[in-house]
């Protein structure tokens, strides 16, 4: 079975996330893949820092992350908004910064992340 281009993009994100964030990310789940040529979209849920569940949404070139907090989503700021123009080094640096601001320092230190 050959994967769609959109599914391959989602898998590529997972691979890059693991390369950039190492053991800080885990439990990736790709869903809501839409591979229509005129409307590509997907979502990925993953765990960050064994602390937050994060949702990345990609829709027609634009993407961003949210913390899942019950039924609510908390948007995470990032300067990289367009997939084709994104510098993923910057994206993951900013994502880590946004997440670490919301996690107690004692927790990060206990896990060797600070």
Identify the strand order in the major beta sheet. Answer: 1-2-3-4-5
Order of helical and strand elements: HEEEEEHH
Total domain modules: 1
How far is the N terminus from the C terminus?
A: 42 Å
Shape: elongated
Largest sheet geometry:
5 strands, antiparallel
Spans of at least 5 consecutive residues with low confidence: none
Q: How big a fraction of the residues is strand?
A: 35-45%
Structure explained in plain terms:
The chain has helices at 5-21, 88-100, 105-110; strands spanning 25-36, 39-48, 52-59, 62-69, 72-75. The protein is of the alpha+beta class and 114 residues long. The chain has a 5-stranded antiparallel sheet, with helices on one face. It starts with a helix and ends with a helix.
Write the layout of secondary structure elements.
Elements: H1 5-21, E1 25-36, E2 39-48, E3 52-59, E4 62-69, E5 72-75, H2 88-100, H3 105-110
Antiparallel strand pairs: 1-2, 2-3, 3-4, 4-5
Helix pairs in contact: 1-2
